[in-house]
Amino acid sequence: MSSRPAPILVGYDGSPGSQSALRWAVTEAVRLVAPLRILEAFELIVTVRPSPGQVVPLDALRTARQTGLDSVAESVRLQHPELQVEASLVGGAAVPALLDGAEHARLVVLGSRGHGGWSGLLVGSVAVQVTTHAPCPVIVIPHDLRAHAHEGPTVVVGVDGSKASAKAIDFAFDQAEALGAQVVALHTWTTPFLNYAEGASMLAFDAQKIEDEARLLVAESVAGAVADHPDVHWQTELVSGSAAQALVRRANSADLVVVGSRGRGGFTGLLIGSVGQSVLHHAQSPVAIVR
């Protein structure tokens, strides 16, 4: 007996960010011929005491939210009749509901910001918590996502030779094949200079050797994905300096940036590394965090 394919799960609350996420998730589900599950969390938080006669029954609020969500799902079905669409209104907070749904999802798609939280933050707490703890890849979509002026779609993936990076590479090539995109395998390195006060170097190193070793690391890291996706064009990009800054800059001309949840640096107890956090908060393109 064939099992039901895992759905693309998208978090929705009616905000501009969630609407951008829904559009992206619909396109992804159509590409992958995967079911789409639209999930909205219903949590009633009373911050002020209502005036007498202005109390709306909880059942009426839930019904109104369900009606709105059903309307959104029906609109998707009308535009894509071949797509299997499920709409779920789940009681409780958004993060637990999304993490529970992620257990059975192929991919989670979220807007960078929903209705809650501080409007000055680029990425909301829900997106941060779900990318940190979800067992499947999570893609965060900027609420003001715009098309890039460049030739052909591009997926950028951070490569550092770690196990998390290997998972990110596989995901990036899968996405590139679905998008008809090229892959840019980006690796950063820093010069081992330690300078005296007067500027004399304490360490001697061969810059060409470091670059050659970096190219070899990238080639070895992507070899398996290249073999599995022979039609996907890819290229190596080496940058001296900060990995986070290089990925954020590259995001300006990318359709998707993919990073592993943790690279080689930092504290092993953290579930998402500093590079992933920085890219998530500052990139202007969709960002995929792959655990």
Structural key phrases:
291 residues, alpha/beta, 39% helix, elongated
Describe the structure.
There is one protein chain. With 291 residues, this protein is α/β, with parallel strands linked by helices. Helices cover 39% and strands 19% of the residues. The protein has helices at 16-32, 58-79, 94-102, 125-133, 163-179, 207-228, 243-251, 274-282; strands at 8-11, 36-42, 85-91, 107-111, 138-141, 154-158, 182-189, 234-240, 256-260, 287-290. Strands 3-2-1-4-5-10-9-6-7-8 form a ten-stranded mixed beta sheet, sandwiched between helices. Helix 2 (58-79) links the parallel strand 2 and strand 3 (85-91). The radius of gyration is 22 Å and the shape is elongated. The two termini are 30 Å apart.
What's the topology here?
Blueprint: E1 8-11, H1 16-32, E2 36-42, H2 58-79, E3 85-91, H3 94-102, E4 107-111, H4 125-133, E5 138-141, E6 154-158, H5 163-179, E7 182-189, H6 207-228, E8 234-240, H7 243-251, E9 256-260, H8 274-282, E10 287-290
Parallel strand pairs: 1-2, 1-4, 2-3, 4-5, 6-7, 6-9, 7-8, 9-10
Antiparallel strand pairs: 5-10
The geometry reads as elongated
Computed over alpha carbons, the radius of gyration is 22 Å
Mean pLDDT: 84
Please report the number of helical segments: 8
Number of strands: 10
Low-confidence stretches: 117-122, 265-271
Question: Summary?
Answer:
The chain is an alpha/beta fold and 291 residues long.
